[in-house]
Description:
The chain is of the alpha/beta class. The protein contains 17 helices and 12 strands. It has helices at residues 2-22, 25-39, 44-51, 98-114, 135-151, 170-183, 207-222, 226-232, 250-263, 285-295, 353-362, 369-372, 375-389, 398-416, 422-428, 434-460, 464-483; strands spanning 55-65, 68-80, 86-93, 120-127, 160-164, 242-246, 266-272, 275-278, 305-307, 320-323, 342-344, 365-367. A 7-stranded mixed beta sheet has the order 9-8-7-6-10-11-12, sandwiched between helices. Strands 1-2-4-3-5 form a 5-stranded mixed beta sheet. Helix 4 (98-114) crosses helix 17 (464-483), helix 7 (207-222) packs across helix 9 and helix 16 crosses helix 17 (464-483). The longest helix is centred in the C-terminal third of the chain and has 27 residues, at 434-460. The structure holds glutamic acid. Residues 87-89, 163, 165, 195, 348, 373, 376-377, 380 line the site of glutamic acid.
Amino acid sequence: MKKFLKVSYIVFFILALWYWLKMSFKDNVNLHVDKSAKLLNFSDDLLEHLKSIHSLIKVNVGVVLDGKINNFTGWRAVHSEHILPTKGGLRYSETVDQDDTEALASLMTYKCAIVNIPFGGAKGGLKINPKKYTMPQLREITKAFASKLINKGFISPALNVPAPDVGTSEREMEWILETYKTLKPDDINYRGCVTGKPLHRGGIAGRTEATGRGIEEVIREIFRHEDIVKEAGLKNKLKENEIIVQGFGNVGSNLAKHLYNRDNAKIIAIGEYDGYLYNKKGIDINALIEFYQKNKNINNPKLGEFKDNPSELLELNCDILIPAALENVITINNVDKIKTKLIIEAANGPVSFEADQKLYEKGVMIIPDIYVNAGGVVVSFFEWVKDISHIRFGRVEKRFQEQKILDIINLIDKKTNTKTDFDTIKKIVHGADEEDLAFSGLEDSMRNAFIEIYNAKKQIKKSFRESAYYVSLKKIRNFYTAEGFPKR
Ligand code: GLU
C-alpha cells in the first residue's frame, strides 16, 4: 500500500509538471478569465464563446528579395467582435505564433473594456527577425503582408485597426496606411486604418509616449492611496522607492523618462536583452536615453555598472519591479527568487499563471497588464477618433480658451487696479493643444479605471488581477445580456 501511494504520488507529480510545462500563453490568460468569470456566475456557453477567437487569418507572404522568393508566415486574430472595430498591435518577431497572437488578442479585449475604450480585441504578428532586413526590404514585406490582410477584411478603419507593437513602429504603420490608401481609395476614413502612425499622416501627438506615460499614471495613482502603499509595504513617497525596469524599448524608456523627470524617481536598474545597468544611487535616465539613441545599447559605465546577465535583473532587491519587455519572464523557474514588493506589468503577460499564484500567496502585489499598459490603446482611440472626424483636437477651441483666460486676467487687473506682468500671463494663458488633450484624456482614463478596479477589489477581496478581470468581464457581459446572447 505504501509503495502504491509513493508511485501514485510520483505519477501525479509528473503529470502536474507536464501540465504546467505544456501550458501556453493562451491557457494562462484563460485561467485568469475562468477565475473571475466564476465570481460573476458566468454561464458556461457565454464563457466558452468569450474564450474563443471570433475570427482568425493565417497568411503566407512570398516576397522576392535579391531575386529569390522569401516566405513569411503571419496571423491576425480577432478575439472579440462585441464592439467594432477591433483593435490591437502588429508584432514582428521570430517568436510570433498563432497561440501567442490569440492570447494577445484576448488581452486587448479585456484591456479595452477596463479603460472604457469602445473597441473589440485583436492582434497580429509576422514571424520575422526585422533586424535581418534592410529598410526597403521591410517595406516590401510589410506592404505584401498588409495587402493580404486588407483584402481579407483584416485591416480596415471600421473593422480592424492595427497599431505598433514589439518590432514595429510608426514607420510600419505608415507603410500599411499607404497600402490601404492604394487599395481602397474611396474610403474617406482611410487614415483610421492604423493608429500609431506619424503625425503628418494623421497620427496624434503623444501616441508614441502614451503606453509609458499611462504606466506612470498608474504608479502615481497607487501613491495617492495610503492603504495600498501600506498593504504593498512600500515607502510613502514614490521617489523614496527603488525601481527596476526590464526593457528599454518604447514602453520602458518612455516610462523611465516620465518617472525620472516628473516624479524624481530612483531607477536603480534598467535591463535589456544582453544585460542590465545598475546604479544604487539611481540612473540618470535622460543621459541614458541620449546614449541609447546613439549607441543602441545601455552599456555606459559612466551611468552605472553594466552586467551581462540579463535574467539576474528580475531577482535583484527592489521596491517596484516593472517588466516592460516580453511575456513569461517570471515563471515557476525564477518566482522564488523574486524580491520585490510591487510588480507593475508593463509588458503583456510577463508573469505566468502559476508564478502569479505564488507571488500572491507571498504577499507581492501585482498590478496586471490588462490595466497597466492600456495607455497605448487609449491614445490610439483618440487618434482613430481624430482620423474619422478629420480634425485635430484643440484646433477649434484653443485660441478661444486663451482669449477667455486673458479676459479674466484683464478683469481682475481692472478690479484690483493691478497689472499682471507679461511672463505670468504667458505662463497662465495656454490653451490646450493636441498633446495636452491626449495626455489629459489618458490620465483621466487610467485614474478612473484604477478606481473601478480598486472598488471591485474591495468588494470581492481578491487580487488586483482578479479584480481587473472581474471589472472587464462584467462590462463585456452587458453586450450579450442586453441583446440576448447569441443574437447578432
Ligand atoms: N500594442 C499595443 C498594446 O498591446 C497597442 C494597441 C493599440 O493601440 O491598438 O496595447
